[in-house]
C-alpha cells in the first residue's frame, strides 16, 4: 500500500464547482469518457486534469487521491507502461477495494477482481510467471474445438428474419466460451447459476448509487452489491475447491492454476489468490471481446465493399467450415479487419494507473497517488500516425507497422494483456463462422452512442436483422446517428 499525503494537482484542467462540480464531472466522464476527454484534450493538450486542482477519484483505492489525469500519445504510453515501479495498477474492483476491512461482508473485496491487476513489482512478476503456462500458445490453441462447438451452437439459435441485439448475443457467446475454458463448465449443463450470479454482480457493480452511497442497509444498492458479491464468491470458491480435490487437469484454466508451482521459489497460489486471478481473468476476458466483435460487425455493416471482400476470403479458404488454427493464419483480410476495428473503435479505451511516488508526465508534476488514465483510443486516432484516422481502412495495415506504443489495444510493456492470443483466436473464429453463414443488417432506429470507461460499449445495444448470407451487403448502409459518427467516417 502506498501512503499519500494531501497534495494538490497542478496539471491544467477545467474549472468546476467544488464538491458537486467534481462529482458531476466524474459521473459525466465515467459515462462518456471519449466525448469528455476529446474536448479536454482539444482545449488543454495531451496531458490534462479532469478538474482544475484535482480532487476527483474514480479508480484509485487509496485515500487522499490528488486527482485524475488524462493523457495520450506514444511517448506517454511508453513512459507509463514501461515504468512499473512508478505507475501501479489497482484491483479492478476500483475504489471498493478500500472497503475490504469494513465488515465481514466486505472481506471478498480483498481478493475479488484483484488478480494480476491488483499487484505490482516483484509480486506481479512472480504471479504473471505462474499464470503464463495457462496462456501459452499451445494451451490457447487447445481451446479451439470448444470454441467452435460453442459458436456453432450459438449461431444455430439465430433465426433468419429476426432482429437481435448483437451485443447481447455476443455477450452470451463469449461468456459461454469463458465459463467452459476457464471453469470447465458447459453452459447448458450446470453453469447457469454461475452466469446468473455474474450478471447480477456486474449490474450492481456498475450502479453509480453503490459508489455514492456505500451503506450496507437492506434495500440499498450497496447492500444488494454485497449480497451478489458474497453469493458469487461462495459459488466460485466451491468450483475451485472441487478442482483442488480432484487434482486432475481437466483442460480448463482453473485446473491448471491449482497445480502451478514456481520451480525456483516453490511459490503456489492460495485459494484467495486463485479466486482473485480467476475473477479478474473472467471480467477482463469476456466483456472486452464482446464489444470488440460488436464494433467490428457495426463497421462491416457500413462498409459493404470490405465485407464483400472479407466474405470472399472466408469462403475461398474455409469453404463454409470452421477455421482450424492453421487456417486462421491464412486469412490476411480478416486479420486486418480485426486490427483496424480495434483501432478505430477501441473497445478498451483507457489504461488506468496510480502513481506510487512523485513523478513527472509530459512535463507536469504528478504527486504520489495521482490516478492516470492513458487514452488508447486517442492515441489510435492521431493523424500523424494514422492518416485519416476516422476512416475504417483495413488496407492501411498492408503498409503501416506502428510501434507498440502507437498501436496498443492490448496495452504494452510487461503488463500487456495476458489473454491477447486467446481473444484474437476467439474473435476471428466467431467472425469467420458468423459471416459465412449470416448477413447482419444494421437497424438504425436507435442512436449508436459509444459510452463507458473500462469498456466502450454501444449504450443502447446494437440491433441487427439476421439474413442468410445472401451478399446483399448494401442493405442497411446509412442512416446511422449517435456519437459514433464523430469517431468513424461513415458514407451516408
Ligand atoms: C479483445 C479483447 C481484449 C482486450 C481489448 C484486452 C485489453 C487489455 C488491456 C488494455 C489490458 C491492460 C494492460 C495494462 O494495464 O497495461 C489488459 C490486461 C489484462 N487482460 Fe485483457 N483484453 C482482452 C481480452 C482478454 C482475455 C480474453 C483475457 C483472459 C482470458 C484477458 C486477461 C487480461 C489480464 C489478466 C490482464 C492483466 C495483465 C497484467 O496486469 O499483467 N484479456 N487487457
Overview of this protein structure:
With 492 residues, the chain is of the alpha+beta class. It has one domain: Cytochrome P450 (Cytochrome p450), CATH 1.10.630. It has helices spanning 20-31, 33-44, 74-82, 121-131, 137-141, 144-156, 166-183, 192-205, 208-212, 221-246, 253-259, 271-301, 304-318, 325-328, 332-344, 376-380, 420-437, and strands at residues 47-49, 68-71, 87-88, 163-165, 350-355, 359-361, 364-366, 371-375, 438-442, 450-451, 457-458, 463-468. Strands 1-2-8-5-3 form a 5-stranded mixed beta sheet, sandwiched between helices. Strands 4-12-9 form a 3-stranded antiparallel beta sheet. The termini are far apart. Bound molecules: protoporphyrin IX containing FE (HEM).
Q: Compounds present?
A: protoporphyrin IX containing FE
Distance from N terminus to C terminus (CA atoms, Å) equals 52 Å
Radius of gyration: 22 Å
Q: Count of helices?
A: 17
Q: What's the CATH first level?
A: Mainly Alpha
For the record, the CATH architecture stands as Orthogonal Bundle
Low-confidence stretches: none
- Biggest sheet statistics: 5 strands, mixed
Beta-strand level of the residues, as a percent range? 5-15%
Query: Helical residue percent?
Result: 40-55%
Amino acid at each position: 500500500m502506498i501512503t499519500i499525503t494531501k497534495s494538490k494537482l497542478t496539471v491544467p484542467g477545467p474549472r468546476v464547482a467544488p464538491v458537486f462540480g467534481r462529482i458531476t464531472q466524474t459521473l459525466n466522464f465515467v459515462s462518456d469518457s471519449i466525448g469528455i476527454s476529446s474536448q479536454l484534450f482539444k482545449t488543454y493538450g495531451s496531458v490534462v486534469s479532469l478538474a482544475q486542482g484535482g480532487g476527483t477519484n474514480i479508480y484509485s483505492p487509496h485515500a487522499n487521491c490528488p486527482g485524475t489525469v488524462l493523457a495520450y500519445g506514444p511517448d506517454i504510453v511508453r513512459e507509463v507502461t514501461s515504468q512499473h515501479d512508478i505507475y501501479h495498477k489497482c484491483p479492478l474492483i476500483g475504489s471498493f477495494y478500500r472497503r475490504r476491512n469494513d465488515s465481514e461482508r466486505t472481506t471478498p473485496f480483498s481478493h475479488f477482481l484483484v488478480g494480476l491487476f491488483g499487484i505490482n513489482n516483484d509480486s506481479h512478476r512472480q504471479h504473471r510467471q505462474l499464470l503464463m503456462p495457462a496462456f501459452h500458445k499451445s494451451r490457447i490453441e487447445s481451446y479451439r474445438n470448444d470454441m467452435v462447438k460453442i459458436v456453432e451452437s450459438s449461431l444455430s439459435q439465430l433465426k433468419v428474419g429476426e432482429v437481435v441485439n448483437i451485443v447481447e448475443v455476443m455477450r452470451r457467446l463469449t461468456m459461454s466460451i469463458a465459463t467452459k475454458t476457464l471453469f470447465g463448465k458447459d453452459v447448458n449443463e450446470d453453469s447457469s447459476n454461475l452466469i446468473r450470479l455474474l450478471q447480477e454482480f456486474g449490474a450492481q457493480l456498475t450502479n453509480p448509487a453503490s459508489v455514492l452511497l456505500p451503506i450496507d442497509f437492506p434495500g440499498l444498492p450497496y447492500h444488494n452489491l454485497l449480497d451478489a458479491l458474497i453469493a458469487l464468491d461462495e459459488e466460485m470458491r466451491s468450483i475451485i475447491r472441487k478442482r483442488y480435490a480432484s487434482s486432475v487437469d481437466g483442460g480448463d484454466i482453473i485446473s491448471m492454476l491449482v497445480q502451478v508451482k514456481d520451480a525456483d521459489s516453490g511459490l503456489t497460489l492460495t485459494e484467495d489468490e486463485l479466486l482473485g486471478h480467476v475473477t479478474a481473468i473472467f471480467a477482463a476476458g469476456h466483456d472486452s471481446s464482446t464489444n470488440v466483435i460488436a464494433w467490428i460487425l457495426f463497421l462491416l455493416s457500413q462498409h459493404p465493399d470490405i465485407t464483400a471482400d472479407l466474405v470472399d476470403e472466408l469462403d475461398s479458404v474455409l469453404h463454409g467450415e470452421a477455421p482450424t488454427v492453421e487456417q486462421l493464419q491464412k486469412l490476411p483480410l480478416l486479420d486486418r479487419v480485426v486490427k483496424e476495428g480495434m483501432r478505430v473503435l477501441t473497445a478498451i479505451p483507457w489504461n488506468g494507473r496510480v502513481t506510487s511516488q512523485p513523478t513527472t508526465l509530459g512535463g507536469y508534476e504528478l504527486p504520489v497517488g495521482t490516478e492516470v488514465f492513458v487514452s488508447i483510443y486517442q492515441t489510435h486516432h492521431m493523424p500523424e500516425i494514422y492518416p485519416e484516422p476516422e476512416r475504417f481502412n483495413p488496407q492501411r495495415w498492408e503498409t503501416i507497422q506502428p510501434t507498440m506504443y502507437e498501436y496498443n489495444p492490448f496495452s504494452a510493456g510487461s503488463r500487456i494483456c495476458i489473454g491477447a492470443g486467446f481473444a484474437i483466436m476467439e474473435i476471428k473464429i466467431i467472425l469467420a463462422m458468423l459471416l459465412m453463414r449470416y448477413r447482419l443488417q444494421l437497424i438504425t432506429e436507435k442512436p449508436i452512442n459509444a459510452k463507458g470507461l473500462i469498456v466502450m460499449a454501444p449504450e443502447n445495444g446494437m440491433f441487427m436483422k439476421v439474413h442468410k448470407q445472401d451478399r446483399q451487403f448494401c442493405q442497411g448502409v446509412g442512416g446511422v446517428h449517435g456519437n459514433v459518427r464523430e469517431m468513424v467516417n461513415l458514407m451516408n
